[in-house]
Specification:
The structure is a homodimer. The first copy, chain A, is an alpha+beta fold. Chain A has 9 helices and 12 strands.
């Protein structure tokens, strides 16, 4: 999302209004919650990164990567027990957790928490909406670029050479985020590396944001979906 | 979404806590807000239906259809002025609107409004997430079926013959909801009509939900995306 400073200051931070809770620590790849251990409440990431995925018809799809100060587990606020969501630590991670009752009681004491949470969730809805748009409008190679740009914006750290560093993410995790296969992500990451738009190792992905944005815009002019009618209509007919 | 009664009762309704406002009336196809008339606040639909769409790179994508008691315009809560969203009445429609300041003041007076809004937004996030999953997991023909089932669940009315009636929606609107082209929607709607799963006219779409759910599940077993690797990898390579 491209938010100016003005916008960043224009909403409340839920963390300001949440009482302290004991810190829980999770090792790399450790499960925070899943089908067997349902989500007990709203979490905040203190340190590290968490991958949140939902399962649909038995296999994992779309993930969200939550880093420091990000919230997850918000479906606990409505007790959505028929929803299978899991959260796994990507790094050594520490979190705090508030049950639905904690949140309800705190909102009674501190009404601005309700406003702050609503604003946080509106931003999350916009981010999800943007991902839907990306899926509807862009073809897979552009969706991989867009996902990397989004991740750079949300969990990236600026480096001395002007690149933005995203801590190590497997191609499977990126594929879950994009909504495509691991093979396509690997193919596209190689292509972007050859184009000099990123560098990656097992430790990190360094993205040259302005160059990637430029390449994204340039390629996009030539290949945004409409006239997607042609390609996807053929595909839809072929799928029958 | 498949929510049991238990879940439906498990969260607060924001409308309980919002003060009355003057009712605004809009004719069919009339613009409620758009690029030229930015969204002034959070709306509720009193009567009728509203189509909310966002523009990305100049053309409209994914819409949401909001019916009686549904909220829209929530991005006004964070003042997302860089976001181009528009809302158009699909039927003769009446709405109420609260500015961001109205909402903030009301949350101070009535903290449970903040909780209710948060819960409403969590449900909206889940719905968006499910649409992302649908796009990642299902092929277009199934996404059309799923969209019709979702619309039946959210804006449909049960009929005497066991079908669920969705008031008239153009194929363009359904295409925007699915994230595909009008042509594909027309093709698929015809196919579903031939299969006896729906009936449609300019006035309404009647969906035989149980039969469509059954067809969806049966076809789905044979065609869910993984091994989407094959089809979409070929497509991604072809797109280079």
């Amino acid at each position: 999302m491209s938010c100016g400073t003005e916008l960043v200051l224009a909403f409340e931070d839920p963390l300001t209004y949440l009482p302290r809770k004991p810190i829980q620590e999770f090792g790399r790849r450790e499960v925070i919650y899943d089908r067997q251990h349902p989500c007990p409440g709203l979490y905040v990431v203190i340190m590290g990164r968490v991958k949140v995925t939902t399962s649909s018809d038995g296999f994992e799809t779309i993930g969200r990567i939550v880093s420091s100060e990000g919230l997850f587990g918000e479906s606990a606020l409505i007790g959505a027990r028929d929803r299978v969501e899991s959260a796994v630590a990507l790094d050594p991670t520490s979190v705090m957790c508030w049950t639905r009752t904690d949140i309800e009681e705190q909102i009674e004491r501190e009404p601005r928490l309700g406003l702050a949470l609503s604003q946080y969730l509106v931003r999350q809805c916009i981010e999800l909406q943007e991902r839907i748009e990306s899926m509807a409008v862009h073809k897979t190679p552009h969706r991989v670029m867009l996902a990397l740009l989004q991740l750079a914006g949300s969990v990236g750290v600026p480096m001395a050479d002007g690149s933005t560093r995203i801590g190590s993410l497997t191609h499977v995790t990126i594929a879950e985020y994009v909504g495509t296969s691991r093979e396509i992500v690997t193919f596209q990451m190689n292509r972007l590396r050859r184009m000099g738009l990123l560098r990656y190792s097992r430790k990190a992905i360094d993205i040259y944001e302005p160059a990637m944005q430029k390449a994204f815009r340039e390629q996009d002019i030539n290949s945004t979906q409409p006239p997607r009618v042609v390609a996807s209509q053929m595909a839809a007919l072929a799928e029958l």
